[in-house]
């Protein structure tokens, strides 16, 4: 429903679109496209995918009609293949709501080419961090790399916890993640299941956390938080957002 709302998160995205340098293309990594091996979309005109059910009709009427970026998809595939992370499949796929929801606020004119890269969630955090490391050259080529997911994602808890102050299992995990980013402890982040407090409670499955590792890997080992939105809701969900300044690899 955030796609139809005005809230702290959508305001943050709107501001980013106005203030960040304009990219020549965008590479999206969303929690909502998962494949057994790396895959990238070469669609010249990606459709808007409404990959959810039971929501109000206006949500299904939304379209994000940006042009595709098949050249960026092919470049990303070549970088991933060269890094030995698996042969990347190329095919035509649209933009799911993890991709078009932030983009409709950042770039409402739909005029920046976009491609989407799939995750391989069974391969875990280290794999996705390495994917990001492989993709790092794209940032120097004017491509914005975006990981779209959630710092926490336990919808069962979100539905059952009554409104009020965020629970400790959420705030402690989110604070740990931020501290690991700020201190550059990427190894601890990659091992978050063992090291972070309440890791499994925040991510019973980790597909919504893994896009962070692609973005962080692409930013480099000395990545710094350039801008951030710390945005815990009042009941068991966090949509914190980070913009990374790339460090020295």
Name its key features.
single chain, 249 residues, alpha/beta, Protocatechuate 4,5-dioxygenase, Chain B, 3-stranded parallel β-sheet, two-stranded parallel sheet, 11 helices, 16% strand
CATH homologous superfamily designation: LigB-like
User: DSSP helix count?
Assistant: 11
> Which strand order do you get reading across the main beta sheet?
4-1-5
- Please indicate the count of domains: 1
Number of strands: 7
What is the CATH architecture annotation? 3-Layer(aba) Sandwich
Biggest β-sheet strands, sense, barrel: 3 strands, parallel
Q: What top-tier CATH class fits best? A: Alpha Beta
Mean pLDDT: 92
Share of helix, binned: 40-55%
Weakly predicted, low-confidence segments: none
Short description:
By secondary structure, the chain is of the alpha/beta class.
Textual characterization of the structure:
This protein has about 250 residues and is of the alpha/beta class. The chain has a single domain (about 1-245), classed as Protocatechuate 4,5-dioxygenase, Chain B (3-Layer(aba) Sandwich), CATH 3.40.830. The protein is about 40% helix and about 15% strand. Strands 4-1-5 form a 3-stranded parallel sheet, sandwiched between helices. The chain is globular, with a radius of gyration of 17 Å.
Topology of this protein?
Blueprint: H1 8-19, E1 25-34, E2 39-41, H2 57-60, H3 70-82, E3 89-91, H4 97-106, E4 114-119, H5 124-140, E5 143-148, H6 155-160, H7 168-182, H8 186-190, H9 192-195, H10 199-202, H11 210-219, E6 224-229, E7 241-245
